[in-house]
Amino acid sequence: MEALHIQGLKKSFGGLPAIAEVWLSVEAGEYRLIIGLNGAGKTTLFNLLTGDLPADAGSILLFESNVTRLATHKRVHLGLARTYQIITLFPQDTLVHNVALSLLGLTKARWNSFGSLSSALYGEARTVLAKVGLETLAQRPIAEVSYGEKRRVEIAMALAQKPRLLLLDEPLAGLSREERGTVKQVIGAIPRETTVVMIEHDMDTALDMADRITVLHYGRVIVEGTRAQVVADPKTREVYLGY
């Protein structure tokens, strides 16, 4: 079964194509890496998949359901979750409160009689924080943790939604070597019942993390295959090395 099937997707801004035409299929349980230089259209593609941007043409199938014209929240309820290239967290709130907030709307256990988030939500949030190695920092404000830990909180918020398809927008960007290693371990531990699609601009950073790799260039898929196939393809060398 395909988790994601994109047919002829297009998006332009001011008459200039950001996504010229993309055809892409991702199998359920697959780990897919989408790489490309800055400006290749990677984040625009994610914004089209989530409904943050409307497509000009083409279609998006999520687990065989056509979601091309669906609102973002309806795609979420079909099992789609994502992280963003720019971290968006509530800095004065604790890690556990940020994760608990991400659960609102996905569970009936929303509020207690005092108008606060329920203990059930906080319990579930702590469980998810443990999955990303942050359970000991659950009560610490976001403003007091490192950038790499913030990245893990954002992944935890996405995982809390129990996604069938998880989109990760450059989760390794801006991290130190040690932080990249930690975040890669967290991503690698995501169970296979969740399909993962991750975008990166640094080819060397994440090539070892994927079953299949897609190279995006000026809004088009130019290479697709295994790591060995993508690295060996002359079009990849042309894009990244200039020859």
Q: What's the quick description here?
A:
The protein is built from nine helices and ten strands.
Q: Could you characterize the architecture of this molecule?
A:
The chain has one domain: P-loop containing nucleotide triphosphate hydrolases (Rossmann fold). It is built from 9 helices and 10 strands. It has helices spanning 42-50, 72-77, 95-103, 119-131, 147-159, 177-188, 203-206, 227-232, 234-241; strands at 2-13, 16-27, 31-35, 57-62, 65-66, 80-82, 165-169, 195-200, 212-217, 220-225. The strands form 2 sheets. The protein has a 6-stranded mixed sheet, sandwiched between helices. Strand 7 (165-169), helix 6 and strand 8 (195-200) form a beta-alpha-beta unit. The longest helix is centred in the middle third of the chain and has 13 residues, at 119-131. It is globular, with a radius of gyration of 18 Å. The termini are far apart.
**Quaternary structure of the protein:** single chain
* CATH class placement: Alpha Beta
> Which structural class should the secondary elements be placed in?
alpha/beta
- Strand coverage percent: 25-35%
Range of helix content:
25-40%
Could you tell me the number of beta strands? 10
The domain tally reads: 1
Strand order of the largest sheet: 6-7-8-3-9-10
Order of helices and strands: EEEHEEHEHHHEHEHEEHH
Mean pLDDT: 92
The CATH homology group name: P-loop containing nucleotide triphosphate hydrolases
Q: What's the Cα radius of gyration?
A: 18 Å
| Poorly predicted ranges | 108-115
The first-to-last residue Cα distance is 38 Å
Number of helices: 9
The CATH architecture term is 3-Layer(aba) Sandwich
Question: The biggest beta sheet, please?
Answer: 6 strands, mixed
CATH topology heading: Rossmann fold
So what's the overall shape?
A: globular
